[in-house]
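User: Show me a protein chain along with its predicted structure.
Assistant: Here is one chain, sequence first, then structure tokens.
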Amino acid sequence: MKRRAVVAGILTVASAGCTDRLRDIAASTPRDLAVRSRYVDGDPLVEGQSVRSLPEGLLTHAASFRSKSEAKAAVLPDQPEATAFVEATSFVDDGGESVLIVAQRLTVPEVELRLGSVSRTGDRSLRVAVDLAGVRGEIETDDPVVKTLLLRLTDERGPPTRIIVSIEGDRAGVTV
């Protein structure tokens, strides 16, 4: 037991600054599902795809993409992090194995989104839990900003048909 704690501590120190990688490794995912995540501070999506396009009062949004052309059309051209993540994705409709999920939340500027866990809720359905990091307690703001988490999902069973994204009790469902 002590050895595991020591190894975990060494890995944490050795990979300092690699928060996305640590979160991906720490996320409880089924063995036949590979997940990579990238946090983007702001809104990389075009109007109509963004959480800002939702009716007022809806704070959580999810979008899915099966092809590179579809994903590139949804990402603003001046968003290098999001564009690089899209470019690195091997999309299902383009002969690859992955789908791209975009999880967004309207919240305070101090918040960051982190992958919490991914679990199966059915044969072709997944639940993605996203954690809010950076603040404690109640979060209230009169002027919310957009926070985005990009997720690359590769399922050995084939692409999922339905994904539920859960952020702080709010849920957004998306058909892939």
